[in-house]
Structure prediction request, 826 residues.
Amino acid sequence: MADFREQSKLEAAILALKAAGIAADDMDVFSEEPIEFRRGILDRPSRMSLVAVLGAIITGGLATAGVYAAQHNYRLITGGMPVFSFWGTGVITYETTMLGSVLATFGWFLWESGLLRKRDKNIPVPTVLPGVMCLRVRCFDPHVTRARQILDSAGATDIARKEVA
Amino acid sequence: MAASAPELLPYAKIREDLFRPLSSASARYWITICAALSIVILGLSAWGIQVRDGMGVTGLNRPVFWGFYIVDFVFWIGISHAGTLISAILRLTDAGWRKPVTRAAEAITVFCLMIGGMFPIIHLGRSWLFYWLIPYPNPRLLWPNFRSPLLWDLVAILTYVTGSVIYLYLPLIPDMAQLAEHNVPWRRKLYRILSLGWTGSDREWHALERAMKLMACIILAIAISVHTVVSWDFAMSIAPMWHSTIFGPYFVVGAIFSGIAALLLVLGILRRTLGLELYLTKHHFNNLSKLLLLMSLLWFYFTFAEYQTVWYGNEPSEMAVFASKIRGPYAPFFWTMVVCNFVVPFVLLGIRKLRTVTTAMISSVCVLIGMWLERYLIVAPTLGNPRMNAASGLYLPTWIEFAITAATFAGMIVLYLLFSKLFPIIAVWEFKPHPVEED
Amino acid sequence: MSIDLDRCTGCEACVVACHAENNLPVSSPDQAEKGRTAHWIRVDRYYEGEFPDVKVKYRPVLCQQCDNAPCEPVCPTYATYHNTEGLNVQVYNRCVGTFYCANNCPYTVRFFNWFAPEWPEPLQLQHNPDVAIRPAGVMEKCTFCVQRIQRGKRDAATENRPLADGEIQPACVQSCPAEAMVFGDLNDPESKVSKLAGSGRSTLLMGELGTKPKVFYLERAK
Prediction:
C-alpha cells in the first residue's frame, strides 16, 4: 500500500504497474473524495444503466399486468367503458417503471460497489487521511519487489507491505 | 475574498465546522424542539378528536368537501420538489454552487413527502380504513380502483418517497463512514451501520457517482410526474375551473416555486443558527434568489394564462367561481396571493440592490404564504360554487384544521432539527477544491 | 324516472317521504347553517321576476343515476359503481370517505355522514329495517329506493310473474300528491316512463355534460 498526495504521480504509478503486468482489478485506490481519473487509467466497466432500464421495464410491466389482472378479477359494470384501459392506468405504469429503475439502481449500486458483497476479512483496508490517496496493490511474491520499485520511483510516501495468508 | 470561496478552506477546518453541530446542542435548540413538539401533540389530539367524533368537527360541508387537508397535502408535496430541482438538475448541469445546498434540499424533500403523505390519511372520513387503497390480496376479492386519480397519487407518492430516501441516503454513505469515529457510542454504531462498511475505494466511488447520475435523471422524471398526478386529482374532475388542461404544468411550476422558497428559508435559518456563513455564501443566496425570481415570473405567467382564459371564455359556471375569487368572498386571499407571490419577489429580488440574504428570506416567507393561499384558492372557491348553484356554500375552517396544519409545520421543524443533529447538513465529501465561480 | 315540472307544486312531500323511507339522519339548526343537512331528494326553487309578479319554479333534484356517472371512476375503493340494472350504487361498507365522488358530481346530490347519525325521540323508532344506517364517515345518496326494487323483484319472482310497470315505486314517487313523478324500466319501450322520456317535453338536467342521466324532467319548452 502506498500513499500519494498528487493525482498525476498516482496515475503514473498505476500506468507503470499495469505495464509491469499487474491487472487493474488488483489495484484499489482509497480516498476521502472521489478522484476523477483520465480515461484508460483505472476504468471500471459498469452495467448500472442497463440494470436500471431492465428494472424499470420489468417493474412497470409487472405492475400493469397486476392492474390488468385486478381489474378483470373485480369485474364491474362500466356502462360501455373498457374494464381495463391502458391510458387510464398509464400513470401507474409510468410511476412503477420509475420505481423499478430506482430500486434497481440502488440494488445494483450496493452490489457493484462491493458494499454488500462478502468481504475478504484478511485483505487490509487502509484508513485514509484527508488529501491523501492510498493505492493498494494485490500481487504475489515475484511481483512485489518490482511493484515497490515502481511505487518508489513514482514518488509515493509511506509504502507499506502487508502479508496475507 | 475568502468568504466567496469555501472550497479553498483547509479540509480539516471544513470537517470541523460541518461536524460540529453533531456533537453539541444549544439551549435554543432544545427550546425550539420542545415548542414544536407540543404543537405536534396538539395537532395529533385534534386529529384524534376528528377520528372519534367524525368529520363534522372540521369546517367541511356540502358542497365544500375538500378543505384545509387537501390544501396542505398539495402544499407539502409541492415544497418537496425543492430537493429534486436543486439536487438533480444542478447535478445534471454540473453547477458547482449546488454543493453545500444539496443535502439540505434532499432532506426537505424527504420530510415534506412524509408530512404531505399523511394528509391523504388525515382527510379520510374513515381514516382507519386507509389501507383499503393499497392493493393487497384479500378474501373479499376487493381491489382498489386503479382508474381513480387518488390511486395514481398513492403510487406516485410512494415512488417519490422511495426515490427521495434513496437519493438522500446515497451521498450520505461516505459521510457516515467519516463520522464512524464519533464520540457517542450509540451514534458510532448508527453511523457504522449506515455507512455499510464504506472504505472509500475507487470502485465504491465510481459506483456511487454512476448511481447518483442515474438517480438524478430518474428522480427528476419522477418529480415532474408526481406533482402532475397530484394536479390531476383536480383536473380529472369536471368541477368548474378544475377541469383545466394547464393544471399539470401549473402545479409543477408552483411546486418548484414553493420548493425553492422553502429551501431559501431553511438555508437562511441554518446559516444563521449553525454559523455556516463561510459555506452558504451570498453567492448561493444570490443564485437561489435568481431562481426564485424566475419561478415567480413563470408562476405569474401560468396564473395569468389560466385566469385570462376563464374570463374570456365567459362560461357561466366557471365565471361564478372566477367572480368569487376576484370580487367575492375569496378576493382578499386572492389579491394577497398575487402580492405575495409576484409583487414582493419581483421587487425585492428583481432590483439588484435590494437582493440580499435577508430580503431573500422575506421573499421566501411571502412566497410560502402566497403559495399556500394559491392552493386554498384552487380548492375552496371551485367547490363552493358547484355547477348547480342552488347548492353553493362557503367554507369556514375550525380550530381542528388550523391545529393540524400548524402541527405539520411544527412536525417539519422537529424532523429537520433532528436531522441536522444526526447528520451533517452539508455534504462534506463534495467539498473538493475547485475554482471560484463568478457571481 | 321522469319528473313532470309542470305538475310539481314544490310541496316537498317527496323529501319527507325519502327521509322516512331511507333512515336519513336529522340535522340540528346549527349543522344546517354549516351546510351539513342531507336530503337525498331536494326541491330547488328558482324565483323569476319582481314582487308582485314573482314566478317560482320548482325542480326536485335527486341522484340522476347517470349512465356515464362522473362519480364512479374516481372512487379509489370502488364504493360506487354501476350495477347491471343501470343503477349507480353506493356500497357503504367500502367507502373510506375520500369525498372525490361528491366533488365530481355536477348535480351535488351526494351527502356525507359528518357525525354518527342521530334522531330526536321518538323518530328512532320509525326506522325502516330494510335500509342500512350509515356510520360516520361514509357517503350516501339516493338509491332509487333499491330496497323497494329488490322487494318488488322478489315478490314477482315468488309469484312467478313478470314485474308490472309501475309496480315498484320509490318513496318519493309514491308520495307525490300531484303525481308528477313516474318510475319504471327504461329498457321497456312500452313502460310509462319510456313514453314520457321520449315525449317532446322531455329534458335532461345538464345533459350537455354527457353524464347520461336517467331522470327526465318534463317541461313545456319556452
Q: What stands out?
A: The two ends of chain A are 16 Å apart (CA to CA). Chain A has a mean pLDDT of 79.
